[in-house]
Specification:
Order of helices and strands: EEEHEEEEHEHHH
Strand content: 25-35%
Shape: elongated
Oligomer: single chain
Helix content: 25-40%
Length: 173
């Protein structure tokens, strides 16, 4: 499948909210004892179709989170959100994590766990059914979820590719 260019060019006018997905304490054993550092995976989004993820590593938790947020702001993509849900079913894989996202009717809520929930809420999706299979590693789940969201196409894009109206995409007539 061809890689789409859903990248967001400028972050100056966006009101981004950051979320901490996971923090990991890493120990390096040296001659002088144990040296602890932290790795934080974060997601940022405007809750209106913009999402990005980042990984920050530092000797203090707050510095790791700040680095993760800065990295996330450099990896933003645009996701089509249609009436609070996704326009169609999508699945993706990253590493050992496999995920499946399915649109849900209004009022369903975000039926997803942990790392997937943080990503879906940050992008502004309010109703979706999600399933993760395989590895529950937060790093791989975040990357797989963002890969799935990057594959989504809006009804307008589908209509333009087919050369028909948006109503014909939904009605099939």
């Amino acid at each position: 499948m061809a890689k789409r260019n859903n990248r967001v060019k400028s972050t100056n006018d966006l009101e981004l909210k950051d979320r901490l997905v996971a923090i990991n304490r890493v120990t390096k054993v040296t001659k002088g004892g144990r040296a602890f550092s932290f790795a934080a995976i974060t997601v940022v989004g405007d809750e209106n179709g913009i999402i990005g993820w980042g990984l920050g590593k530092a000797n203090e938790v707050t510095a790791a989170i700040a680095k993760g947020v800065e990295t996330a702001k450099k990896n933003l993509i645009k996701v089509p959100v249609y009436k609070g849900t996704i326009p169609h079913e999508v699945s993706a894989k990253f590493g050992g994590s496999r995920i499946f996202l399915k649109p849900a009717s209004e009022g369903t809520g975000v039926k997803a766990g942990g790392a997937m929930r943080a990503v879906l809420e940050s992008v502004g999706i309010t109703d979706v059914l999600a399933k993760s299979k395989g590895s529950s590693n937060p790093h791989n789940l975040v990357k797989a979820t963002i890969a799935a969201l990057d594959e989504l196409r809006s009804p307008a894009q589908v209509a333009q590719n087919r050369g028909v109206s948006v109503e014909k995409v939904f009605n099939g007539k």
